[in-house]
Amino acid sequence: MDSDPVELGVTLLAHLEDESLSVAEAIDRLETITTDPHLTREILDTAELRGIIEREEGLIRTRSDSFVRFERQVVSREGDFECRRCGSPLSTGYFIQFETGELGPFGSSCIRKVTGRE
Fold first, then answer.
1. Which branch of life, at top level (predicted)?
2. 71 partner at 20 to 30 Å CA-CA among 21, 56, 109, 110?
3. Cβ atoms within 10 A of the Cβ of 71, count?
């Protein structure tokens, strides 16, 4: 991945549809970018410093009113992919396109979980 993982992670947190989620749920989504615990902590710290999230008693509250616009920011591609979230083989991959980089591929249910639509 060519994108800065911290910026991509902060952008993902800024676009979640959930008003709040557990730290574990946030980490589950951030693991689509990195499984390095130090990098995950840096993403959370950076997002908090920028006012994108608030952390309190094991919960993360999102402070942004942005969300992923499926019609414009999610593209599908045919090919031989593996879902970044669950590892399932995919013939159609869904990718989220942010200004900070592209995240994916995901399967049809994992893309909804990562963005907070499910």
1. Archaea
2. 21
3. 6
